Amino acid sequence: MQSEARRAGPPAECGIGPAETGRAALGLPRRERLRHNRLRSPGQGPADSGTALTTDTPEPQARQRWLTLGALGVVFGDIGTSPLYALRECFAGHSGAALTAANVLGVLSLIFWSLIFIISIKYLVFICRADNKGEGGPLALLALAFPERARRGRVALAFTGLGVFGAALMYGDGMITPPITVLGAMEGLKVATSRLAPYVVPLALGILVGLFWIQRVGTGGVARIFGPVMLVWFVTIAALGLAEVVRHPGILLAMNPVHAVEFFAREGWLAFRVLGAVFLVLTGGEALYADMGHFGLQPIRRAWFGLVLPALFLNYLGQGALLLRAPDAAVNPFYRLAPEWALWPLLILATAAAIIASQALISGVFSLTMQAVQLGYLPRVEIRHTSPTERGQIYVPLANWLLLLACAGLVLGFQSSSRLAAAYGLAVTLTMLVTTLLFYFAARRRWGWSNLRALGLCAGFCLLQLPFLGANLLKFPEGGWFPVILGGLIYGLMRTWNWGRRRLRERLEAALLPFDMFLAEVEERQPHRVGGTAVFMSGSPTGTPLALLHNLKHNRVLHERIVLLTIKIEEEPRVPATERLEIIRHGQGFYRVVARFGFMEEANMKDILRLCSEQNLQLKLSETTFFLSRETIVCRAGTPWYRAWRQRLFAFLSRNNLSPTAFFGLPANRVVELGMQVEI
Length: 680
Description:
Elements lengths: L2 E5 L8 E2 L15 E4 L24 H14 L2 H4 L5 H6 L9 H26 L11 H8 L8 H33 L1 H5 L7 H14 L6 H4 L2 H22 L10 H10 L1 H10 L6 H6 L6 H29 L7 H4 L6 H32 L9 E2 L8 E2 L1 H18 L2 H5 L4 H22 L3 H23 L2 H35 L2 E2 H11 L2 E10 L5 E2 L1 H10 L1 E13 L11 E7 L2 E8 L7 H10 L9 E11 L6 H15 L4 H4 L7 E9 L1
Helix pairs in contact: 1-10, 1-14, 4-11, 4-14, 5-6, 5-19, 6-8, 6-16, 6-17, 6-19, 6-21, 8-17, 10-14, 10-16, 11-12, 12-20, 19-20, 21-25
């Protein structure tokens, strides 16, 4: 390793260590250990209780009503806009079913029972119970099913990779949902008048650009109207469907599952292909689970069973009844439900609902990116908190603009929601299967389920989902390749970054000097001390930071007070307040501080220094010098090309990693970086 001193610059892997070493400091020799009970942030529950949002703790009825209303706007935006295009795709195009009464009843029966088994039973009864301290989603479930300390052996590593792949696929879902929902809403212009057809794509692009542009200023104020707007949306689509059901009450027979069985027996292969379109009614299931932490399980259940499910199925029934009465309405049965006088108001409402559905997925991508960064699966990127009171409202500029480019490309490339529907579904199906597999391990680890019980339930879910996967695989050449290839590329980036960080940590820890040996040497040699405080960021809570060794070697001085700071990101969304901060006083002016944060929390240096000051370790930002290590990755000479590509990719990501100065909010004029070259 070669060392060089320089001022603040590019990224470094200092200050964030592996989660499994976070408690190793408990065995260190020390004179005093202090833990601080951190003040709770606005909206944060009792941090030391460990109680998840999904518990049955009673809350005031008014708060529950507001949570339920909020869930309508955020959680159900994606699945709530599926009626814009789902049933149309079942009877449109070369793969659609013939428009007969028996086929309409069969398709509607498939839709109804799919919503019951996949969304109502699988997700709302079972999957959503597997929350990681209230948070859901692939990475949160992965941390629950396979904690860092349990990721040993081929089986655990394989399923860990599957969990990361599921998270990568959600990026593909986040890129497709805004274009397909906005295009589906704008295509109502064609129903109003054919003269407006050329303006569908430009208007969709304009709406998407505006939607992504407002992300940088925060969506807190807009989010307050999401719930009421979606309430009007669900009531409206239920009323439109109910009006048509009253004219054709025989359509209610579709709730009989016999019609779904007869549809398969009669149509065979064609019915199997139609399953790919039927799956479009389920595409918000994963988003429902990922957004669970914002509202809790009970409000989501009330919203689903009390309004969303009845409204969706009434609308699908109404569209089916309309198709039986007027087969020419198959071009766009949703908008044909509305009387002529209500077409324009419905178009405006559908556009608002499409924007809300898109916002939910965009916010989900931001949250997923923050989780991936904190858990070590993506390089550090800029994360801005857009609300002083709501911790969950964040803005990730890089993710935002990449999403906009992808969405604009999809709109220009596919031109219509029907063509884009071919690309929609495969990524979501794969993510649902990954969630099912991870749930098996989470159920056994968290609830102690027997192998037979967990395997039986998950096997049943897989049997329900595998036909959908097969049907969506048929759409691979028509556009299904896009989210899968995109997910594969993102998965490669995530795995490479995680692999490189582990290799880098191993190399650095192998060169670390035990701190007790360093302390003994300092006591013996008594190097010259200068005034002031120096904070050395350290990835290990036990070793001596390399930056400290290099500073002493080259400058031959030590500061009057030296703080070794380790920031730990634990595999839980929020760390209890009693475990937030640990201060170890070693004497001779040396202090070790271990600050622990959850993967949904921001590790801010000002907060850490404030907590230290409250425990009689006064660290003023303007009077403290921060020493960081900056590692320049060098590929090992003679590495075969099929291995060297991964090293080069990690080196590229490391060079473009956001500097810890910016990530932790350090004043640039108080930072000194000591660089070194490391071979991996």
